[in-house]
Amino acid sequence: MAAVSALDAQRFGYLKPADVARLAEAFRFSEAAHAGQTRQSGDPFISHPLAVAGILADWHLDGQTLVAALLHDVIEDTSVTQTEIAETFGKPVAELVDGVSKLDKIEFQSAEDAQAENFRKMLLAMARDVRVILIKLADRLHNMRTLGAVPPAKRRRIARETMEIYAPIANRLGLNALYHELQECAFSHLHPLRYRVLAKAIKSARGNRREVIGRTLQAIRAKLAEAGIAASVSGREKHVYSTYKKMLEKHLSFSEVHDIYGCRVIVRDVPACYLALGALHALYKPVPGKFKDYIAIRKANAYQSLHTTLIGPLGLPIEVQIRTEAMHRIAESGVASHWMYKDDAESLTELQKKTHQWLQSLLDIQSQTGDSHEFLEHVKVDLFPDEVYVFTPRGKIMSLPRGSSAVDFAYAVHTDIGDRCVAAKVNGELVPLRGELRNGDRVEIITASHAKPNPAWLQFVRTGKARAHIRHFLKTMQYEESAALGERLLEQALKGLGTTLAAIDEASWERVVRDTVARSRQELLADVGLGKQLPAVIARRLLRYAEAPGEEAKTASKSGSIVIRGTEGVAVQLATCCRPIPGDAIVGSMKKGLGLVVHAADCRQIVRSRRNEPGQWIDVEWDPNPARMFLAAIKVTVANQRGVLAKVASEIAEAGSNIDSISMDDDRALYATMLFVLEVANRRHLARVMRALRRLPDVKKLARARE
Ligand code: MN
After folding, report:
1. Of the residues 245, 464, 483, 611, which has the fewest C-beta atoms closer than 10 A?
2. Catalytic: 77?
């Protein structure tokens, strides 16, 4: 059997002799069929099916699968038919080869239509017999390992397809080692330079810390031995792609990502996992909130382990995975471990059950929808657990990172919609913009033409697109609004000197701008608005250059106040300590970089500053017809009864006010104190709301909250 020598005897040694003979036969058959064909690398074509069968043999797959692997390209690339294969090797093998050939015909296009349809076919093939997909994955792995010989354009397409389709499938099937190898390979071809730079950085970082890591592993081993727990402890290699992804997604630098060291502890049984966890928490301090029990609650792909993060020597964070040998096999080989370790009955039946259920659910979805897009979107939820899929009102599907809000959605639809969004409806109900979107939500964004992005959004948006646009908008807006405010402040200061802005000539402006660091008149005005330049100082300089006609009249007229309309945007801020509303007496102060901050004149926070630095404070007054609503806070003490919050809230709505936020004091037995932040037009409106609330019998105490 000359062919068997080509089939590495050791690699296939786990098979029964009859299977080995079949394999030898299949090898000769395939070699003859592919005779004269070569791969792009120049190797004889047979080297490829042989390598694929070898990979599958490493997973200990059955004889049929290996025979099919040797024959997987003959229908596609030679004149051999499915019938011939069935006659020679039996129907199951012929069906496997046919399944793989059908998948081979799929060219994953960048066009979404084609991709959805292809993906559907692929998963359905897998649902019928998971061995088809295992052959396909082994085929892809060998192609990725030898991708360097392929022309660059094709190389990129195959690498992208691997990243987007095959790696996630490997992950879903729990083939962890395969999943990482596919990702690493694909990444190295998609971004060769980034791959090289990061790989080098990872290697040298590892070298630098070899000593402290060695000591840490030693300490862990000693601690476990001392506790009488038999364990094997090893360090974990960091993958280049997962490092890259973490940097990208969490906006971290290389050192922030890489300063975390990974370590794995494998013990005999489940109780030992928890004992080991206890021992390690006694050795090094655990990071709160990082402990995860995937033993009690296993992942969808049957993964089980305890995860914890410890603070090691020199503050080195150590991510520890603790698991049993059986869990480890599943973690590495997933669904393939069924063939690899047939003896390990209990956990594998669970895994098989899970996989079977998942595949079955694919068939169900298929029979329900028939639409390949919809199918794809359902399946993606499983394959890409880090994303959520939501619908636009027209039924278009958008994918967003998990944790995304309606604002992320709005920006994903269009920048203008993001910039102008004021509210969102999810599945027909109004929700706060910051609320987290969930799979399948139908999201509708309500926009207003005058609306602007809110700086507070930056605290909860997840997508880079939303973040970038909000930042950009705020920057330009702040500049424009600050300049407008600066102009008004300067006008006020000039009035105090007996002149007006209009009276200042161009030449004086130019000279004053040149005296400062500002690059233009607009920028100087913005600096004044932002409190970086004092209006009185700039006004004097302007006058000096203009040889002001009204210099001697500077004490004659009292300066007019700055009028607050509420539409100044970020240049004017209403202090949140006292939340002034129209009707309140107000004062303003310039805060460097913040612009004008307006307080209620009786605000307790500013008493000392007004006494000690009176020059800081500027006269301000409300515009008689402000163009928006303002936030005021009230404190309500109510009898602590069921439904009381609803009553208060509906009374507030009845009085024409919106509730911006509610917080509760402690939950004492008889009374509860609630803090409401409300939108009101002015003091009169607030008084109306408060009168309405006082009429409620449950309301025991009510006051405007200021602190
Ligand atoms: Mn192939």
Report:
1. 611
2. yes
Q: What are phi and psi of 567, to 5 degrees?
A: -110, 20
Give the pLDDT score at 202: 84
Q: How far is CA 484 from CA 489, 521, 528, 562, 630, in A?
A: 9, 12, 10, 12, 21
CA distances from 226 to 212, 270, 272, 282, 322 (A): 21, 19, 13, 12, 17
Active-site annotation holder among 19, 76, 419, 651: 76
CA of 99 to the centre of ligand 1 (A): 13
Measured CA to CA, the distance from residue 366 to residue 273 in angstroms comes to: 40
Gap between the Cα atoms of 467 and 9, Å rounded? 58
Give yes or no for residue 689 having a pLDDT over 90: yes
Range in 200-204, 254-258, 324-328 with the lowest mean pLDDT: 254-258
Ordered structural domains, the chain, with CATH: 2-145 (1.10.3210.10), 200-333 (3.30.460.10), 386-462 (3.10.20.30), 472-575+585-615 (no CATH), 630-704 (3.30.70.260)
79 CA → ligand 1 middle, Å: 16
CB 677 within 8 A of CB 652: no
Beta bridge partners of 622: 564
Q: At what angle do helices 47-58 and 130-145 cross, to 10 degrees?
A: 120
Residue 75 Cα to ligand 1 middle (Å): 11
Per-residue pLDDT tens over the stretch 564-586: 877 777 778 888 888 999 999 89
Per-residue confidence (pLDDT) for residue 1, from 0 to 100: 38
pTM over 0.70: no
Alpha-carbon span 392 to 527, nearest angstrom = 42
| Whether 76 is catalytic | yes
**Eight-class DSSP state of 536:** H
Q: Report how far apart, in Å, the C-alpha atoms of 67 and of each of 13, 47, 337, 535, 668 are.
A: 15, 15, 19, 86, 73
- Choose the catalytic residue: 25, 58, 62, 77: 77
